[in-house]
Amino acid sequence: MTVLVTGGAGFIGANFIFYWLKAHPGDRVLCVDKLTYAGNLSTLSAVLEHPDFRFVKTDLCDREALDRLFAEEHPGTVVNFAAESHVDRSIEDPEVFLRTNVMGTAALLDVCRKYGTLRFHQVSTDEVYGDLPLDRPGLRFTEESPLRPSSPYSASKASADLLTLACFRTYGLPATVSRCSNNYGPWQFPEKLIPLMIANALQDKPLPVYGTGKNVRDWLYVEDHCRAIDLILRRGKPGEVYNVGGNCEMNNLAMIKRVCQELGKPESLITYVTDRKGHDLRYAIDAGKLQQELGWQPATRFDEGIRQTVRWYLEHRSWWEEIVSGKYLDYYEKMYGDR
Ligand code: NAD
Ligand code: TYD
User: Fold this and answer.
1) pTM of the entire predicted model
2) Which residues are catalytic?
């Protein structure tokens, strides 16, 4: 089988490619990625020479390029990770979020329909449900919760979910959607909370907490997310939405203190900064459907996952230092400029 992974040079997509090549030996994996600031070809260096792997630098919005690739490769399964993914950037400049997350997904869905893709999976986020209050801990998002996105990022992701489900209903494309909580683990771009705090702490730089630090996120180790998508692709029902969550709620301040503790760095690095506009208070996922219907549950406990993640950033210092210093652009030119 040939699996097309979009956004595979980013955090979760790359972890998914590593996971898939190991879990399904013999499958061919194609990666389509535009290599935006968040996509990093060096992340994929371990598989670039793999006989069952092919990397194609393409913008999801480039319909002709997608068409050519599908005509050549006829992928049976398509998993759409490609997105602009950072809420803060979406607040500064929403347009590229609409372009990639909405128009890019629409282009991909169209080409999947044209070539009769057997399975399409849209990787979405719990942020499409908006947020929950801090004082009602019993509330959690189910697949039936209304879509109430707060940021341009989550609004664009909600739109992509709806386009995917409409494509199932109207054209019969066998499509599924998963809505996952915050992921952490290796290869996450150091603009997101955990890797930013690790990178800053290691450089003895301030650790910026937005607002009070009381905002709550639910955290899931990235490999558990990859396993959930694999299960949904193989055993999920087309037309269905599946929530994916870690059952691991934590407020940001507690998370940052935990990172300090793991690194042996002082909490005095913590600095309170102006809050994010429209900052969602709390995300909490009820993943009961995925658990009951497909038997999924998170395998990595937070204690273990955060330890592994911190160790990974310590052992891969050059990866994130090059990103932080902008050097990965040189790497890309060297590796890919003439291809
Ligand atoms: P990321 O920002 O690390 O990676 C995104 C990748 O998409 C990059 O490699 C980038 O180059 C590529 N890309 C961006 N625009 C593109 C375009 N126009 N054409 C082709 N490729 C393009 O993101 P991530 O954290 O790995 O998230 C992956 C997916 O999972 C996203 O759809 C995101 O909404 C979703 N998600 C993320 C989280 C999380 O905690 N990170 C949680 C739930 C869902
Ligand atoms: P982030 O990693 O951007 O994920 P998301 O906003 O999609 O959940 O942020 C996670 C939480 O951490 C969010 O409540 C914002 C907060 N945050 C900070 O307090 N400081 C920071 O420097 C960053 C990047 C995030």
Assistant:
1) 0.97
2) 126-127, 153
